[in-house]
Amino acid sequence: MLTIIAAASENNALGKNNDLVWHLPNDFKRFKALTTGHHIIMGRKTFESFPKPLPNRTHIIITRQKDYSVPEGCIVVSSLEKAIAACPENATNFIIGGGEIYKQALPFADSIELTRVHAVVDADTFFPAIDENEWQLTHDEFHPADEKHEFAFTFLTYVRKRQ
């Protein structure tokens, strides 16, 4: 099972200058809870945005760079198809970014775990549009802005419609 997990604003903004454009502690907690113990697939720039590999997850980094050096336990591949092939079958594996990887992964994904941030922000990286003809919203959970969360947000779960 391949799940895309992301946080995107109302205008589908993901980030700017290889960084997030908001700080939502409850989104980080959800991301950690869902991805811990699983394989996570990402592009090189997303991997480089972390200070160190995320604990208790197997990182699969997609890059065209030859001899790209990563810490022990991380896997480097040259394409999304090779990244998916490196994941265990019959397990939930996650696509965690960035924008181009999300776009490439959308046709392969079984579900999307999206945190919709209720704001319009300036960004240079965007999440692809979700086609309502292909995806069914199965869960939504609204969270208002508060002292720890500058913006209101909604956790959304989509599953691919079966044809």
Automatic annotation (TrEMBL):
The EC number(s) this enzyme carries: 1.5.1.3
The DHFR domain, residue ranges: 1-160
GO cellular component labels: cytosol
Keywords: NADP, One-carbon metabolism, Oxidoreductase
Pathway the protein acts in: Cofactor biosynthesis; tetrahydrofolate biosynthesis; 5,6,7,8-tetrahydrofolate from 7,8-dihydrofolate: step 1/1
InterPro entries hit by this protein: DHFR, DHFR-like_dom_sf, DHFR_dom
Catalytic activity: (6S)-5,6,7,8-tetrahydrofolate + NADP(+) = 7,8-dihydrofolate + NADPH + H(+)
A Pfam family of this chain: DHFR_1
Domain of life from the UniProt record: Bacteria
GO molecular function annotation: dihydrofolate reductase activity; NADP+ binding
BP-aspect Gene Ontology terms: dihydrofolate metabolic process; folic acid metabolic process; one-carbon metabolic process; tetrahydrofolate biosynthetic process
PANTHER family tied to this protein: DIHYDROFOLATE REDUCTASE
Family to which the UniProt record says this protein belongs: Belongs to the dihydrofolate reductase family.
Primary role: Key enzyme in folate metabolism. Catalyzes an essential reaction for de novo glycine and purine synthesis, and for DNA precursor synthesis.
Protein name: Dihydrofolate reductase
